[in-house]
Amino acid sequence: MRVLVTGGAGFIGSHVTRVLLGAGNAVTVLDNLSSGRRDLVPPEATFIRGDLKDERRLPEWLTGHDAVIHLAAFVAVGVSVERPIAFAENNVVNSVRLLEAMRQAGVRKIVFSSSATVYGVPKRLPLREDDPLGVQSSPYGASKIATEAFVAVYHQLHGFDATILRYFNPFGPNELCEPETHAVPNIIRAALLHQSIPLYWNGDQVRDFIYVEDLARAHANVLDGTGLNYFNVGSETGTKVRDIIQMVTDILGYPIAIEDKGQRPGDVAATYATSERLRKATGWRPTVGLEEGLRRTVDYYRARLGT
């Protein structure tokens, strides 16, 4: 299969590209490198430095592909609060540009990278795909709900085969965002540099941490899907943030300084998934446990930081 991956030079996209290539697919990476890195794109992939806002060239780039995996987006939740128009333009309007260009180019299969944020404050746990979508606390979450809706519209109007993957908390190598807002890379980088880790709510927040290579495999597993599908992608286990800190402490073998930041408005106390629907549909299940994933991630940042 010929697959175009938007945002394929980023954290998750680089792993998705490698998984697709390993399964024998031909892969084109489309990335404007605003946050992605050219060196994360495997040499076996075709690389196009381009932007989804380029409506004239998008159909040309898409022609000849069988499917699109759409990961290109702004992701920093805090920044989305400060720059809601930029997030709406980049995450929603550019996604509609992509869908329309796909229609023009005759490419009618898409896998969309969504987020567990669409559920808002959970009414029950673990979260299931048929749980209601919640009121959003950030433009980032709103942009994911809006794009999910447009993907569904193109399924309804134009017969797209569409799969929406709702990620929980991915972590692992190649996460090089600036500013970095995710717990695991911030904890590991601070620990390796012997800096204090800012901790909110005493680290009692419960999250579902999924190793990025397991997440990447889910994209390849759903490529044959037809119709309109929604899947959670998580480890199916809730883990407290302070337990992550303890695991990293045990891996490094020395104590990590903590900066108690108290409470933070907008945080959800607990969120974790059931991925039963994805497992039944494709046979996918996570294979890298949390401790092993953290060890691999520590090794990656240790090499990168030269510590």
Q: Which features characterize this protein?
A:
307 residues, alpha/beta, 7-stranded parallel beta sheet, two-stranded parallel ribbon
Reconstruct the topology from this structure.
Blueprint: E1 2-6, H1 11-22, E2 26-31, E3 46-49, H2 58-62, E4 67-70, H3 77-82, H4 84-105, E5 109-115, H5 139-158, E6 161-167, E7 169-171, H6 183-192, E8 197-200, E9 206-207, E10 209-211, H7 212-221, E11 228-233, E12 239-240, H8 241-252, E13 258-262, H9 276-282, H10 290-305
Parallel strand pairs: 1-2, 1-4, 2-3, 4-5, 5-6, 6-11, 7-10, 8-13
Antiparallel strand pairs: 9-12
Helix pairs in contact: 1-7, 4-5, 6-8, 6-10, 8-10
CATH homologous superfamily descriptor of the domain at 2-172 and 211-235 and 282-287: NAD(P)-binding Rossmann-like Domain
In CATH terms, what is the architecture of the domain at 2-172 and 211-235 and 282-287?
Answer: 3-Layer(aba) Sandwich
Low-confidence stretches: none
Radius of gyration: 19 Å
Number of strands: 13
